[in-house]
Design a protein that fits this description.
- This protein has about 425 residues and is mainly alpha-helical.
- Strands 1-2-3 form a 3-stranded antiparallel β-sheet.
- A hairpin with a 2-residue loop joins strand 1 and strand 2.
């Protein structure tokens, strides 16, 4: 009787549109595309707005330099989209085969950037390698290396059934991450170190580490980050000034104060696209670390809520892919990529609104910066690759090629090789 009543109720009260959408096997693909395209659109829009002002101020109003910066943003997109497509086409088996080569490449690049003549020093930090017209950050490349290596390592151990012992959870995963983080801190770069720690925590959480061990790791991570923060005077200043940035508004609290001014002056709807005052030399790093403040000034609360909603959608889609992934490796990487990209966004936005100390990490897909944009697009391409292999997704995508949107999804469903 109860079952019959439920069937009658289901006919009379059909499920909501949102529930029906999420029941589709290719919902993860659509959510990832929507969130990624939305964030990339914000990135292009705001990068053009802010780089024009930065170039104009730096070069005394030379229009040639203005358009050079805009063209460079176009090149970032031209390089990033093929990388996204290539990453989307690779299978989990191919990623596992690439784990050790990419890790070795990342470690070699991290060592090379420390060598004078190879690494480019800016503001006392040696983080970039000069490749003529472009500068790349080896620490960004190494992110992909440790991500693939950690996922492959834990997947093999789970398959062998060795993760029941605590030491197999930590060894050699944690020492490997510590080694790479040590190379990053020699640059030094605490912000990128936090991103590595997010990847590590994402892997350990998704592999099913007991909560007592996970709490211990989180405690050790917090203690380590605090120790690194107080080890250098300028980091200690950032740590103490964020609680009251107006106490030293022209010194250690300058970035936060100007950021809050930008956000406050935007109001609900903003001062208008391109009409920001803070980007004209007042707010440092307005094209990268503090671009969220310019979004708040030009597009107001509405603009900032749109950006945060897109990151929320990306988090939901990434965790959905992790939950529905057909194999351990894909599940681990989906969770770790989501923790890395969304966690990095939380760190950046927290610093902009004065809720956390300034760490210098860019806003993924939105901030200017070739290395960060390219590596983030590779990470999103990996998520798309795993989403395409969810149960029933490939068949449903291939069958949806009758409409213009369906033809795009059908094209995305084609694989270059069979799934493992």
């Amino acid at each position: 009787m109860i079952g019959a009543l439920h069937r009658v109720r289901a006919k009379l009260l059909p499920p909501a549109e949102g529930a029906r959408f999420l029941d589709r096997p290719y919902a993860s693909v659509q959510l990832l595309l929507l969130a990624s395209a939305g964030l990339l659109g914000f990135g292009i829009l705001m990068a053009v707005s802010t780089t024009i002002a930065a170039s104009h101020a730096a070069d005394g109003g030379s229009t040639g330099t203005i358009w050079t910066q805009v063209i460079k943003e176009g090149w970032f997109l031209a390089i990033g989209l093929p990388l996204f497509w290539f990453a989307m086409r690779l299978s989990p088996r191919a990623y596992r085969a690439l784990a050790y080569p990419v890790l070795v490449l990342g470690v070699v690049a991290l060592v090379a950037v420390l060598i004078p003549g190879i690494g480019v020093e800016v503001y006392g930090a040696r983080r970039w390698v000069d490749l003529g017209p472009l500068q790349l950050q080896p620490s960004e490349i190494a992110k992909v290396g440790v991500l693939l290596w950690g996922g492959d390592l834990l997947a093999r151990k789970q398959q062998l059934g060795t993760l029941r012992k605590a030491r197999h959870l930590f060894l050699p995963l944690v020492p490997g991450f510590v080694f790479v983080i040590a190379l990053v801190m020699l640059e030094p770069d605490l912000g990128t170190t936090l991103c590595y720690l997010l990847i590590l925590l994402g892997l350990l959480w998704m592999v099913g580490m007991p909560i007592r061990y996970f709490a211990l790791v989180v405690g050790l991570v917090a203690a380590g980050v605090t120790a690194l923060a107080v080890a250098e005077p300028y980091r200690l200043q950032r740590l103490t000034s964020f609680t009251d940035p107006f106490k030293d508004a022209q010194g250690s609290g300058f970035h936060t104060v100007e950021s809050l001014y930008a956000l406050g002056s935007g109001g609900i709807f903003g001062v208008g696209l391109g009409a920001s005052r803070e980007k004209w030399g007042w707010l440092p790093e307005s094209t990268s670390d503090f671009i969220f403040a310019i979004i708040g000034e030009e597009l107001g609360l509405v603009g900032t809520l749109c950006v945060t909603a897109l990151y929320g959608g990306l988090a939901f889609a990434g965790l959905r892919v992790a939950r529905r992934a057909p194999d351990t490796f894909s599940r681990l990487l989906s969770a770790a990529i989501t923790a890395w990209i969304v966690g990095q966004a939380v760190i950046n936005i927290g610093a902009v609104i004065g809720a956390t100390p300034i760490t210098g990490v860019p806003l993924p897909l939105v901030s200017k910066g070739l290395s960060s944009v390219l590596v983030t697009m590779v990470g999103l391409g990996m998520l798309m690759s795993f989403a395409r292999r969810e149960p029933g997704a490939s068949q449903a995508l291939a069958a949806s090629g009758t409409s213009p949107g369906g033809r795009v999804l059908s094209w995305l469903s084609r694989r270059s090789r069979p799934s493992p």
